[in-house]
Specification:
This protein is an all-beta fold. The protein has one helix at about 225-230, and strands at about 5-15, 20-30, 35-45, 60-70, 80-90, 105-120, 120-130, 135-150, 150-165, 170-185, 190-200, 210-220.
Length: about 240
């Protein structure tokens, strides 16, 4: 397109129900001084598999508009981004017997960035806010990564978020943190992580203990001569 802009178009059609499940169009274009803008419009309708009843629990359809701005320093040492979206949901026909009617729209926003102190040390951060028809959530992540060569890294991560759900668990705050690392083993790679989460209910002290500790260890062994495997394109 004009001046380096690009256009993406996607569509999905359900032959059984004769209905468009997804229609999407997005335009991405450079603006000035390392700034890039992206605008997207989506129309989504749930897809119900004919061989199972689980599709009946899928959310209703929605129309959505999205926007995003990305900036990168010419040296690639620093980058920033910001995004936002607004959704309008279809009418479900369900009305609560008491209290106010449920909202039929939602929106979300976020911002973050990355700063490289040196070739092998970088700090990343992101904040997100999401408000939907049944719940809200906001919080952020902070991560410090150190590379020691191709495929060898250590990362220290922290997270904090607060949720409010009208339908499920209720309000709560979570703080978490942990460590992750990776190491190449010849053509293979070994990676692992250890993360701990502390949950604090808001106005509901009798809730179940939702604190968690999560650990993972992954050994990845590539097979074949696919060029994508050399760059770990399958991850």
């Amino acid at each position: 397109l004009f001046r380096g802009a690009s256009l993406e178009v996607e569509g999905k059609y359900d032959l059984a129900r004769e209905e468009v499940n997804l229609a999407r169009a997005a335009v991405t274009s450079p603006v000035f001084l390392g700034l890039q803008a992206r605008a997207e419009a989506r129309r989504y309708r749930p897809y119900f598999d004919l061989w199972t009843l689980w599709g009946a629990f899928s959310p209703v359809g929605y129309d959505e508009i999205r926007g995003r701005l990305d900036w990168s320093h010419p040296s690639a040492r620093a980058s920033l981004f910001a995004y936002g979206a607004y959704r309008a949901y279809e009418e479900t026909g369900a009305k609560p017997s008491e209290g106010p009617a449920l909202r039929d729209d939602g929106w979300r926003m976020g911002a973050g960035g990355r700063l490289a102190f040196s070739e092998g040390l970088a700090l990343s951060a992101e904040y997100r806010y999401d408000e939907g028809f049944g719940a809200t959530r906001h919080g952020g992540d902070l991560s410090l990564q150190r590379w020691f060569g191709a495929g060898t890294f250590v990362a220290l991560t922290g997270t904090a978020f607060e949720t409010f759900s009208e339908f499920q668990v209720g309000a709560g705050r979570v703080w978490g943190g942990g460590l992750s690392a990776g190491l190449p083993l010849g053509p293979a790679s070994l990676s692992g992580s250890f993360l701990a989460y502390k949950h604090r209910p808001v106005d509901r002290p009798g809730q179940l203990d939702l604190n968690q500790i999560r650990a993972s260890l992954i050994l990845e062994i590539p097979f074949g001569q696919d060029p994508g495997l050399r760059g770990r394109g399958n991850r």
